[in-house]
Design a protein that fits this description.
InterPro entries: DUF6705. With 176 residues, the protein is an all-beta fold. The chain is built from no helices and 10 strands. The N and C termini lie far apart (33 Å). The mean pLDDT is 89.
């Protein structure tokens, strides 16, 4: 399947990443600013969502703010979920220059669109992942946009996500 185009989802089919467009996004990436850091580990995985199989990028993350760990879901990578949407990061929509979310993309550049879940606060975010190079080092630039939660006027404010939305540049790390 060509992940750049929407196709009819056929029950039991396998929507495979035939051109390995997801592979370059795999890896461990780290953002640091003083004693605040965001670590994201991304892996390609075959998933079954009760209707069809699909290849996707899954991931987990750790956020440390002012030296205090706010959230760490990295241990979920050792769990083999059948439905990859159970991981904290899930993405498999390839976007290109001119499409929403790929405003800064260069011609022929492919970015990845997906979602991110904060399991502590149950907040959800839209996620865009672009591959970039920083000082000769592979990196990703991510955009995290937390979705608004609706509440009644009399309800208490829902909890804020465990880390701020916005743009982050994370450099690729070699795992030992």
């Amino acid at each position: 399947m060509d992940l750049q185009h929407r196709v009819q989802r056929i029950r039991g089919a396998y929507h495979k990443d035939m051109n390995d467009l997801l592979n370059p996004f795999e890896g461990t990436y780290v953002y640091t600013n003083g004693n605040t850091s965001l670590k994201i580990v991304l892996q390609k995985k075959k998933s079954f969502n009760t209707k069809y199989y699909e290849d996707m990028i899954i991931g987990e993350y750790q956020y440390i703010e002012n030296g205090i760990e706010k959230i760490n879901t990295l241990n979920k990578l050792s769990i083999n979920f059948t439905d990859a949407w159970n991981y904290s990061v899930g993405a498999n929509l390839i976007i290109t220059a001119g499409q929403v979310g790929c405003d800064e993309c260069l011609p022929n550049e492919k970015a990845l669109s997906g979602g991110l879940v904060d399991e502590l606060t149950h907040n959800n975010a839209d996620l865009i992942i672009r591959r970039i190079t920083v000082n000769g080092i592979q990196a990703i630039k991510i955009l995290v946009v937390w979705r608004m939660k609706y509440k009644k006027e009399t309800d208490p404010m829902p909890p804020r996500a465990s880390f701020p939305g916005g743009e982050y540049i994370l450099t690729k790390r070699l795992e030992r």
